[in-house]
Amino acid sequence: MRSRSRGASRATHTVGAGAAHHINTATPPHRDRAVDALRAIAILGIILGHWLVTALVADGDTLHTASPLQHMPWLTPISWLFQTLSVFFLVGGHVATKSYTSARAHGTPYNQWLRTRLSRLFIPVAALLTLWTAVTIGLLATGTRMDTVHTLAKLALSPLWFLLVFAALTAATPLLTRLNPLWPLAVVLHVDLIRFGLGGPQELGWINLAAGWLVPYTLGAAWTRGELDRRRAGWTLLVSGTAATAALIVWAGYPSSMVGVPGAQVSNLNPPTLAAVTFGLAQCGLALLLRGPLRRTLGRHPLAWAAVALVNLSAMTVFLWHQTALMATTATGLAAGRLPGLHTPPDDLPWVAARLAWLPVFALALLLCRSAFHTYENRRSRRAPRPGNTPPQAVRHA
Questions:
Q1: Which of 255, 320, 334 is CA-nearest to residue 58?
Q2: Could you give the CA distance from residue 251 to residue 245 in angstroms, rounded to a whole number?
Q3: At a CB cut-off of 8 Å and minimum separation 6, what does 354 contact?
Q4: Residues 345, 346, 348, 353: what is their CA dihedral angle, to the nearest 10 degrees?
Q5: Does one domain contain both 213 and 352?
Q6: Are residue 314 and residue 286 in the same domain, yes or no?
Q7: Which letter does DSSP use for residue 269 in this model?
């Protein structure tokens, strides 16, 4: 039996190595693998961050959201590790600018280019909206409390705000290819000065929803123009962004958490504050410094490159469905009662340990969602004809 097990293990490894070799050899030599790696890191960081700091607490016949950061502020560094939105906008700005420049050089109309870019974002959204419309109607029809339905629907659809902002910036790419990132940074600075320093209306902060994410997006455009190729640029962003963020937290009273915390007066993300933007500058600097090591590592290790390519193949699907995977696991677990780390208040170390143990279950639920819905993400590329030298879907830019 042990011999058979070893034989099966070797066969599985051989198949995996063969698939990885195929993906590796099919990847064009000019492809920048670091771009795909940074996108994968950003997506996985967001997912893990949500799974670690989002709790659905069962309280009688209702479910409400809570966060361990609310009860255990010493866990705040988790938000520094897994709030990776700036890296995603950096990569998005780089790829969109490069794509638009190439499309313009080949005479592709703007409308056609934009339709292609946005279809990759919004075709997968249709499946999510359809399912959650049905789920919401079903919950209401079975007498589920409205506050529970609101909690679940809000959590499931929360990734859509990000897509709307990203789509708006993508549509504005022709206007942003030459925009200096200092201009949107200045807007964020003045908005926060009016809000917090001069007692202005808090609603003014929503200007930062566009201006704040414009900063890393336009840094991505500068990357495309070759202005950030020197390592000095990465170090400058990393050091200055870190120092500015620390100063804002210590002396200006900004929250130390880079994600929203229930009950907190100010959230660094809702809408983005100057601290969130300077923190994003530090992240972008680190990402730029990692480009060389990532290229070398992925060039030498086909298995690592295959893993990165597969994450990129399903990037939108796993991003859209990761909260649904968490909620599906939570709902299924209710049949066994209030389970630690799943339905209990996130207010002590045993909850943290239990939540870490649940992460593989969330990942399995997400894999099931990916199997069911990833065809929507790749429907467009299956329809389009592919020339013989076109690489597999798994190695194309999103």
A1: 334
A2: 10
A3: 339, 340, 341, 342, 344
A4: 120
A5: no
A6: no
A7: B
Domain count, the chain: 2
- Distance (Å, rounded) from C-alpha 397 to C-alpha 26? 14
d(CA 178, CA 97): 10
Answer whether residue 68 is part of any domain. no
Query: pLDDT tens, 94-107?
Result: 999 999 999 999 99
* pTM as predicted: 0.90
Q: What tokens does 323 get?
A: 């909260």
Angle formed by the axes of helices 208-224 and 182-192, nearest 10° = 160
φ/ψ (deg, to 5) at 253: 80, 15
Q: Is residue 30 part of a domain?
A: no
Residues sharing a CB contact under 8 Å with residue 173, sequence separation 6 or more, in sequence order? 93, 96, 97, 100, 221
- CA–CA separation, 234 vs 237, rounded Å? 5
Q: Residue 392 sits in which domain range? A: 301-398
The residue out of 300, 322, 357 marking a domain boundary is 300
Tens of pLDDT along 298-335?
999 899 999 999 999 899 999 999 999 999 999 899 88
288 and 380, same domain (yes or no): no
| 292 and 327 share one domain | no
Tokens 């201009």: give the residue. Answer: 183
Judge if 295 and 358 occupy the same domain. Answer: no
Q: Judge whether 42 lies within some domain.
A: no
